[in-house]
Amino acid sequence: MSRAAAVAMVLLLCGLCAPLQARTVYRCVQKGTVSLATAPEPGSRCTAMTVDDNAVQAPNLWGNFGVFSGTLYEREQDGRKVYSTRNLPGSTPYLRFTVATPPGEPAHAGLGRVGTPQLDRHARQFRAAAKATGVDDAWLRAVAHAESAFDEKAISPKGAQGVMQLMPETASEYGVTDPLSPAQSINGGARYMQSLLRRYNGDRTLAAAAYNAGIGVVTRYGGVPPYAETRQYVDKVLALYSAYRQAMGNGPERPAQ
Questions:
Q1: 123-247 CATH fold
Q2: Collapsing DSSP states into helix, strand and coil, what is residue 129?
Q3: On the CB side of 74, how many CA atoms lie within 13 Å of its CA?
Protein backbone atom coordinates (compact mmCIF):
# COMPACT_ATOMS: atom_id res chain seq x y z
CA MET A 1 0.00 0.00 0.00
CA SER A 2 1.06 3.62 -0.35
CA ARG A 3 2.88 5.43 2.41
CA ALA A 4 0.06 7.96 2.69
CA ALA A 5 -2.53 5.21 3.10
CA ALA A 6 -0.42 3.49 5.75
CA VAL A 7 -0.12 6.71 7.71
CA ALA A 8 -3.87 7.34 7.42
CA MET A 9 -4.69 3.85 8.71
CA VAL A 10 -2.27 4.20 11.63
CA LEU A 11 -3.94 7.48 12.58
CA LEU A 12 -7.40 5.89 12.30
CA LEU A 13 -6.41 3.00 14.52
CA CYS A 14 -4.85 5.42 16.98
CA GLY A 15 -8.11 7.32 17.07
CA LEU A 16 -9.86 4.13 18.21
CA CYS A 17 -7.45 3.65 21.08
CA ALA A 18 -7.67 5.28 24.50
CA PRO A 19 -7.35 9.09 24.36
CA LEU A 20 -3.80 9.37 25.63
CA GLN A 21 -0.82 11.38 24.43
CA ALA A 22 0.89 8.17 23.28
CA ARG A 23 -1.08 5.23 21.87
CA THR A 24 -0.23 1.64 21.06
CA VAL A 25 -0.93 -0.01 17.72
CA TYR A 26 0.00 -3.63 17.06
CA ARG A 27 1.60 -4.87 13.86
CA CYS A 28 0.53 -8.52 13.60
CA VAL A 29 1.91 -11.12 11.19
CA GLN A 30 0.06 -14.37 10.45
CA LYS A 31 0.77 -16.78 7.60
CA GLY A 32 2.90 -14.24 5.81
CA THR A 33 0.36 -11.40 5.87
CA VAL A 34 0.41 -8.31 8.05
CA SER A 35 -2.41 -6.45 9.79
CA LEU A 36 -2.74 -3.50 12.11
CA ALA A 37 -4.77 -3.83 15.31
CA THR A 38 -5.61 -2.07 18.55
CA ALA A 39 -4.83 -5.26 20.52
CA PRO A 40 -2.66 -8.35 19.91
CA GLU A 41 -4.47 -10.74 17.58
CA PRO A 42 -4.91 -14.39 18.63
CA GLY A 43 -2.77 -16.63 16.44
CA SER A 44 -0.60 -13.80 15.15
CA ARG A 45 2.91 -12.66 16.02
CA CYS A 46 2.35 -9.09 17.14
CA THR A 47 4.73 -6.25 17.83
CA ALA A 48 3.60 -3.21 19.80
CA MET A 49 4.40 0.22 18.42
CA THR A 50 3.87 3.37 20.42
CA VAL A 51 2.59 6.29 18.39
CA ASP A 52 3.04 9.76 19.86
CA ASP A 53 0.08 12.07 19.26
CA ASN A 54 2.52 14.91 18.72
CA ALA A 55 4.73 13.04 16.25
CA VAL A 56 5.24 14.81 12.94
CA GLN A 57 4.99 11.53 10.97
CA ALA A 58 3.38 8.23 11.91
CA PRO A 59 5.73 5.23 11.73
CA ASN A 60 5.60 2.71 8.91
CA LEU A 61 4.10 -0.36 10.61
CA TRP A 62 3.53 -2.27 7.38
CA GLY A 63 7.05 -2.95 6.25
CA ASN A 64 7.16 -5.25 3.22
CA PHE A 65 4.70 -7.90 4.36
CA GLY A 66 1.47 -9.08 2.81
CA VAL A 67 -1.38 -7.03 1.41
CA PHE A 68 -4.03 -4.59 2.57
CA SER A 69 -7.51 -6.00 3.21
CA GLY A 70 -9.46 -2.86 2.47
CA THR A 71 -11.67 -3.28 5.56
CA LEU A 72 -11.30 -2.40 9.22
CA TYR A 73 -13.06 -4.99 11.41
CA GLU A 74 -14.56 -4.70 14.90
CA ARG A 75 -14.82 -7.53 17.42
CA GLU A 76 -14.91 -8.16 21.16
CA GLN A 77 -11.77 -9.42 22.83
CA ASP A 78 -11.32 -9.80 26.59
CA GLY A 79 -14.52 -7.86 27.21
CA ARG A 80 -13.72 -4.80 25.11
CA LYS A 81 -14.03 -3.60 21.55
CA VAL A 82 -10.92 -4.03 19.44
CA TYR A 83 -10.22 -3.17 15.82
CA SER A 84 -8.08 -4.88 13.22
CA THR A 85 -7.51 -4.98 9.47
CA ARG A 86 -7.70 -8.80 9.63
CA ASN A 87 -11.07 -10.59 9.47
CA LEU A 88 -10.91 -12.84 12.52
CA PRO A 89 -13.75 -15.06 13.84
CA GLY A 90 -16.44 -12.93 15.44
CA SER A 91 -15.49 -9.83 13.47
CA THR A 92 -17.91 -7.51 11.72
CA PRO A 93 -16.95 -4.88 9.13
CA TYR A 94 -16.52 -1.47 10.75
CA LEU A 95 -15.14 0.65 7.92
CA ARG A 96 -14.34 0.00 4.26
CA PHE A 97 -11.72 2.03 2.47
CA THR A 98 -9.73 2.17 -0.73
CA VAL A 99 -6.04 2.78 -1.32
CA ALA A 100 -4.02 4.05 -4.24
CA THR A 101 -2.89 1.43 -6.73
CA PRO A 102 0.66 0.35 -5.90
CA PRO A 103 3.28 1.16 -8.55
CA GLY A 104 3.58 -1.55 -11.20
CA GLU A 105 0.03 -2.88 -10.83
CA PRO A 106 -2.06 -2.96 -14.04
CA ALA A 107 -5.22 -1.57 -12.37
CA HIS A 108 -6.58 1.45 -14.21
CA ALA A 109 -9.56 3.76 -14.27
CA GLY A 110 -10.20 3.22 -17.99
CA LEU A 111 -10.20 5.70 -20.86
CA GLY A 112 -13.95 5.82 -21.51
CA ARG A 113 -16.58 7.67 -19.52
CA VAL A 114 -20.07 6.53 -18.58
CA GLY A 115 -22.37 8.02 -21.17
CA THR A 116 -24.88 7.23 -23.87
CA PRO A 117 -24.51 3.72 -25.35
CA GLN A 118 -22.82 3.74 -28.75
CA LEU A 119 -24.47 0.92 -30.66
CA ASP A 120 -22.90 1.71 -34.02
CA ARG A 121 -19.27 1.30 -32.94
CA HIS A 122 -17.76 -1.95 -34.30
CA ALA A 123 -21.21 -3.56 -34.12
CA ARG A 124 -20.42 -6.39 -36.56
CA GLN A 125 -17.25 -7.34 -34.68
CA PHE A 126 -19.04 -7.41 -31.33
CA ARG A 127 -21.84 -9.60 -32.69
CA ALA A 128 -19.29 -12.02 -34.16
CA ALA A 129 -17.24 -12.20 -30.94
CA ALA A 130 -20.36 -12.70 -28.81
CA LYS A 131 -21.56 -15.51 -31.08
CA ALA A 132 -18.14 -17.20 -31.07
CA THR A 133 -17.63 -17.06 -27.29
CA GLY A 134 -21.13 -16.98 -25.83
CA VAL A 135 -20.29 -13.83 -23.89
CA ASP A 136 -23.16 -11.33 -23.86
CA ASP A 137 -22.76 -8.74 -26.62
CA ALA A 138 -23.89 -6.00 -24.21
CA TRP A 139 -21.24 -7.03 -21.68
CA LEU A 140 -18.46 -6.88 -24.27
CA ARG A 141 -19.63 -3.44 -25.39
CA ALA A 142 -19.73 -2.23 -21.77
CA VAL A 143 -16.12 -3.33 -21.24
CA ALA A 144 -14.98 -1.72 -24.49
CA HIS A 145 -16.83 1.49 -23.66
CA ALA A 146 -15.17 1.67 -20.22
CA GLU A 147 -11.75 0.67 -21.53
CA SER A 148 -11.30 2.79 -24.65
CA ALA A 149 -14.59 4.45 -25.63
CA PHE A 150 -14.28 2.13 -28.69
CA ASP A 151 -11.14 3.86 -29.95
CA GLU A 152 -9.15 1.22 -31.86
CA LYS A 153 -6.05 3.42 -31.70
CA ALA A 154 -6.18 3.95 -27.94
CA ILE A 155 -2.99 3.27 -25.99
CA SER A 156 -3.07 3.64 -22.21
CA PRO A 157 -0.25 5.00 -20.04
CA LYS A 158 0.26 1.42 -18.78
CA GLY A 159 0.68 -0.02 -22.29
CA ALA A 160 -2.77 -1.48 -22.98
CA GLN A 161 -3.85 -1.17 -26.61
CA GLY A 162 -6.86 -1.14 -28.87
CA VAL A 163 -10.62 -1.31 -28.42
CA MET A 164 -10.43 -3.83 -25.58
CA GLN A 165 -7.20 -2.37 -24.13
CA LEU A 166 -5.32 -5.66 -24.04
CA MET A 167 -1.92 -5.69 -22.39
CA PRO A 168 0.79 -7.08 -24.72
CA GLU A 169 1.12 -10.38 -22.83
CA THR A 170 -2.65 -10.94 -22.88
CA ALA A 171 -2.86 -10.07 -26.57
CA SER A 172 -0.10 -12.58 -27.31
CA GLU A 173 -1.79 -15.28 -25.22
CA TYR A 174 -5.01 -14.95 -27.22
CA GLY A 175 -3.36 -14.79 -30.64
CA VAL A 176 -3.79 -11.08 -31.25
CA THR A 177 -1.04 -10.08 -33.67
CA ASP A 178 -2.37 -6.58 -34.35
CA PRO A 179 -3.81 -5.10 -31.13
CA LEU A 180 -5.01 -2.00 -33.01
CA SER A 181 -7.23 -4.08 -35.30
CA PRO A 182 -10.80 -3.78 -33.96
CA ALA A 183 -11.70 -7.32 -35.05
CA GLN A 184 -8.62 -8.88 -33.44
CA SER A 185 -8.87 -6.81 -30.27
CA ILE A 186 -12.57 -7.54 -29.76
CA ASN A 187 -12.13 -11.23 -30.49
CA GLY A 188 -9.15 -11.51 -28.15
CA GLY A 189 -10.88 -9.50 -25.42
CA ALA A 190 -14.01 -11.65 -25.74
CA ARG A 191 -12.01 -14.86 -25.42
CA TYR A 192 -10.18 -13.46 -22.40
CA MET A 193 -13.46 -12.39 -20.79
CA GLN A 194 -14.94 -15.81 -21.53
CA SER A 195 -12.10 -17.42 -19.56
CA LEU A 196 -12.58 -14.98 -16.66
CA LEU A 197 -16.32 -15.61 -16.44
CA ARG A 198 -15.67 -19.36 -16.38
CA ARG A 199 -13.01 -18.91 -13.69
CA TYR A 200 -15.39 -16.93 -11.48
CA ASN A 201 -18.50 -19.01 -12.16
CA GLY A 202 -20.23 -16.22 -14.03
CA ASP A 203 -19.59 -13.52 -11.42
CA ARG A 204 -19.36 -10.39 -13.56
CA THR A 205 -18.02 -8.26 -10.72
CA LEU A 206 -15.00 -10.51 -10.21
CA ALA A 207 -14.49 -10.93 -13.95
CA ALA A 208 -14.43 -7.15 -14.43
CA ALA A 209 -12.06 -6.73 -11.48
CA ALA A 210 -9.68 -9.33 -12.91
CA TYR A 211 -9.87 -7.76 -16.38
CA ASN A 212 -8.85 -4.48 -14.77
CA ALA A 213 -6.33 -5.45 -12.09
CA GLY A 214 -5.32 -9.00 -13.02
CA ILE A 215 -6.24 -12.49 -11.84
CA GLY A 216 -3.37 -12.57 -9.36
CA VAL A 217 -4.55 -9.43 -7.56
CA VAL A 218 -8.13 -10.71 -7.27
CA THR A 219 -6.77 -13.98 -5.87
CA ARG A 220 -4.49 -12.13 -3.45
CA TYR A 221 -7.35 -10.08 -2.01
CA GLY A 222 -9.98 -12.81 -2.22
CA GLY A 223 -12.23 -10.51 -4.27
CA VAL A 224 -12.27 -7.02 -5.73
CA PRO A 225 -9.04 -5.34 -4.59
CA PRO A 226 -9.33 -2.16 -2.49
CA TYR A 227 -7.80 -0.03 -5.25
CA ALA A 228 -9.87 3.07 -5.98
CA GLU A 229 -9.25 2.66 -9.72
CA THR A 230 -10.52 -0.91 -9.83
CA ARG A 231 -13.63 -0.26 -7.77
CA GLN A 232 -14.52 2.75 -9.89
CA TYR A 233 -13.90 0.70 -13.03
CA VAL A 234 -16.12 -2.18 -11.87
CA ASP A 235 -18.94 0.23 -11.01
CA LYS A 236 -18.54 1.87 -14.42
CA VAL A 237 -18.71 -1.42 -16.35
CA LEU A 238 -21.74 -2.67 -14.41
CA ALA A 239 -23.57 0.62 -15.02
CA LEU A 240 -22.69 0.52 -18.71
CA TYR A 241 -23.80 -3.11 -18.99
CA SER A 242 -27.25 -2.19 -17.70
CA ALA A 243 -27.41 0.75 -20.13
CA TYR A 244 -26.36 -1.38 -23.12
CA ARG A 245 -28.83 -4.13 -22.31
CA GLN A 246 -31.63 -1.59 -22.18
CA ALA A 247 -30.48 0.16 -25.36
CA MET A 248 -30.25 -3.15 -27.22
CA GLY A 249 -33.78 -4.11 -26.13
CA ASN A 250 -32.64 -7.13 -24.15
CA GLY A 251 -34.77 -8.81 -21.51
CA PRO A 252 -33.57 -10.09 -18.12
CA GLU A 253 -29.82 -10.45 -17.73
CA ARG A 254 -28.38 -13.50 -19.43
CA PRO A 255 -26.43 -15.93 -17.24
CA ALA A 256 -22.71 -15.37 -17.84
CA GLN A 257 -20.89 -18.04 -19.82
A1: Lysozyme (1.10.530)
A2: helix
A3: 8
